[in-house]
Design a protein that fits this description.
Elements: H1 6-23, E1 48-51, E2 56-59, E3 66-70, E4 76-81, E5 90-97, E6 102-109, E7 116-123, E8 129-134, E9 150-155, E10 161-165, E11 171-174, E12 186-189, E13 195-198, E14 202-207, E15 216-222, E16 229-234, E17 240-244, H2 247-251, E18 261-265, H3 268-307
Antiparallel strand pairs: 1-2, 2-3, 3-4, 5-6, 6-7, 7-8, 9-10, 10-11, 12-13, 13-14, 14-15, 16-17, 17-18
Protein name: SMP-30/Gluconolactonase/LRE-like region domain-containing protein
Organism: Citrus clementina (Clementine)
InterPro entries: 6-blade_b-propeller_TolB-like (IPR011042), Sensory_adhesion_molecule (IPR053224)
Length: about 300
């Protein structure tokens, strides 16, 4: 049996330790922090994101309707210039949707400018705007005490954007097509689990396939804005009804109206699906009839053979 000297063991361990220190990786805390000092007149950027494809940072602007890239070498280039946005609007939160190759930007107008909050999406290849989704939930003509501020944005793998409101206790969600439930008012649930959400201009049909971990707007129906819908309920046979109460007239001080209405609103997609099922049932009925006729003809031939 061989024996190992304890002094030799200590010496070997010490040598191995020193070797790992000399040739091993340098601890990250020993690296000098990366700093990029860039120049851009009157920019005062508030939002920041990283574009992993282009390998540069992206910043917004407090006083200009522009978005800029900043390289490691502090080179600043204009990525987006959108003069159609409100004058003196601020570009706040930014995010890169790598899967859909889009740049998402929050646009906000601070006081004394008129309230404005929106999520803009730009195609990174063409640099053209894909959509501009308004986020304000103030009703036109109604003065609110607190102005909302769409501050920052994050995006998931499905392209859904989540926008923080630094002046409120909620988060906006906007899908990859730019839908947001703007000015949502009333809500109701059908027996099949479909959620109905109404605003003064739209009735949305929302459903989920994952126990409401995520909901999807699968259809929407335009409403009569002048009549100003404010509530929705589910009537007999799961029919959706909205109330046209002409509320805006009352808020503006008008009086004397006697007629109001409760109207059924249907989903165009669901109607199309119902029509498809009608044709399917007719087809099955025809197929059954032809099969029955074939069997009866065969039975008659068999009886004739036996009789002869």
């Amino acid at each position: 049996m061989a024996f190992i000297n304890s002094e030799s063991t200590k010496s070997l361990a010490l040598s191995l330790f020193l070797f790992l220190i000399l040739v091993g990786p340098t601890p990250s805390f020993a690296r000098t922090p990366h700093v990029i000092n860039f120049r851009s007149l009157n920019r005062y950027p508030e939002g920041l994101t990283w574009d992993p494809s282009a390998q540069h940072f992206v910043v917004g602007s407090q006083h200009h309707r522009t978005i800029h890239s900043v390289s490691d070498a502090a080179v600043v280039e204009t990525l987006i210039s959108d003069p159609t946005l409100p004058e003196n609007a601020t570009i706040l939160g930014l995010a890169i949707d790598s899967i859909h190759n889009r740049l998402l930007a929050l646009v906000h107008s601070a006081a004394p400018l008129p309230p404005f909050n929106a999520l803009a999406a730009y195609d990174l290849r063409s640099r053209r705007r894909v959509f501009l989704s308004l986020l304000d939930d103030e009703t036109p003509g109604v003065i609110t005490i607190k102005r909302h501020v769409a501050n920052d944005v994050a995006v998931d793998f499905n392209g859904n954007a989540y926008v923080t409101n630094s002046a409120g206790n909620f988060i906006w969600k906007v899908d990859k097509d730019g839908e947001d439930l703007v000015w949502a008012d009333g809500i109701a649930v059908r027996s099949d689990g479909v959620v109905l959400v109404v605003s003064h201009h739209t009735l949305w049909f929302i459903k989920s396939h994952d126990s409401w971990a995520e909901g999807v707007v699968y259809d929407k129906t335009a409403l009569n804005q002048e009549k100003f819908a404010t509530s929705v309920t589910v009537g007999g046979e799961d029919r959706a009804y909205v109330l046209y109460g002409r509320v805006m007239e009352g808020l503006l001080g008008n009086s004397g109206r006697e007629e109001f209405s409760i109207e059924e609103v249907r989903s165009k997609k669901e109607n199309e699906e119902e029509n498809v099922w009608v044709f399917v049932l007719l087809g099955l009925g025809l197929a059954y009839f032809l099969f029955w006729r074939f069997q009866m003809s065969k039975l008659v031939r068999d009886i004739n053979k036996k009789t002869n």
